[in-house]
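Subject: Protein entry, chain in single-letter code together with its fold tokens

Area: Proteins and the way their chains fold up in space.

Attached in line: The record itself begins immediately under this heading.
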Amino acid sequence: MSTHSILVLNGPNLSRLGKREPEVYGAITLAEINRGLAESFPDVTFEFFQSEKEGDLLEKLFHCEDNGGISGVVLNAGALTHYSIALRDAISAVKLPIVEVHLSNIYAREAFRRTSVISEVCTGVISGFGPDSYHLGVRALITIAMKKEREAGR
């Protein structure tokens, strides 16, 4: 299996995992999720990035596309999922597969959380599987990358 490079991009409040509403998001920290991904996918090169600032996330997406080498992005945009047209436009502008992930099932929560303005421009959406949502997102990106490699005759 060839090595793939995946950006795991996390938005506002995800730095508070393990402390913020553990009854909803669980007791696991973002560092533990990242460590679990690296351990579960040793053939994948990960870059982990989290910011409370919308602009930082946009710049990171543009940087990845401009500098190449990234197979895809696993994105948990946090609250930006529900209202950030700027993030939606950035996702639409970059030519990378992006899988939107959520720890909780956003469709079983408050009405305002059931709307994602980014889903339509993401490659796919995984929601409600706790930390496994990230693992499923990585698996999806690996599958997409391998399909592209086969189609390119590699």
Observations:
- Residues 4-151 form a domain with the Rossmann fold fold (CATH 3.40.50.9100).
